[in-house]
Amino acid sequence: MNGWSALDRFLRTDPRDVGCAGTVEMLHIYAELAAAGDPVKERYPGVAAHLRVRPVRGRL
Amino acid sequence: MVGITGKLGQFRGESRFTTWAYKFVIFEVSAKIGRHFWRHPAIPFDAEDWDRLPDRFGFDPAQEIAWRDLLTALHQAVDEQLTARQRRVFVAFVLNHVPLDTLVIELASNRNAIYKTLFDARRKLRAALAADGYMGDDCLRSP
After folding, report:
1. What is the pLDDT of residues A3-31, one digit of tens each?
2. Beta strands in chain B (DSSP E)
């Protein structure tokens, strides 16, 4: 990932993002469904949006 | 272990017990690292060395001529568009690599509130860069 794509990713916000609290609440369910091959990104788009955020060198 | 046993009443069988428990282990470790960083910061939370910014996003120093204007605009947007709290969180998180859990302690807040502060800052900065012509087709315009 070059600087442009990393910065672009950092600045990209998704209004569906459920935030930390919403993600923590669902994380164990999301993880198991994802491991089982369930289309979790479609089922839980708000959690997926939050987990997609890796703003700076994989942090947050 | 004590932390997990204290939460046993919250387990609703929606996943395997170990998956549910691991979640709290991960966050407990993260919080401990945050507390450690808060007690022993590598650099002051409010230090502002903007020369770090290119490296934080992985910009190639050899191509500085290509990204210098973009990062100058970003710095200007941080100064002019963000609230004092948003700016503080941006500087700590992006420039100084302060962990989220450390910011929670430093600002006497919680993960959700810090994340929301950064979320709003990111949205503002993207809008500012778009207004300055650095966006194309909904992506940052690279040379």
Report:
1. 888 899 899 999 999 999 999 999 999 99
2. 135-136, 139-140
Task: Please report, for chain B, the start and end positions of each structural domain, with discontinuous segments joined by +.
Answer: 2-39, 50-140
Per DSSP, what are the bridge partners of residue B136?
B139
CA–CA distances in Å: residue B131 to residues A11, A49, B39, B79, B89: 14, 25, 40, 16, 23
Structural fold of domain B50-140: Arc Repressor Mutant, subunit A (1.10.10)
Residue B66 amino acid letter: A
Q: Nearest-CA distance from B125 to chain A in Å? A: 7
Strand runs (DSSP E) across B65-136, as ranges?
135-136
Closest B-chain CA to A33: B15
Q: Tens digit of pLDDT per residue, chain B (143 long)?
A: 767 787 888 888 899 999 999 998 888 888 899 899 889 888 887 789 999 999 999 999 999 998 999 999 999 999 999 999 999 999 999 998 898 899 999 999 999 999 999 999 999 999 999 999 988 767 777 76
A12 touches chain B (CB under 8 A): yes
Cβ-based contacts of A20 with chain B (< 8 Å): 111-112, 115
Domain boundaries, chain A: 3-52
Record the pTM. Answer: 0.86
Q: How many CB pairs under 8 A join A and B?
A: 86
Question: Is B116 in CB contact (< 8 Å) with chain A?
Answer: yes
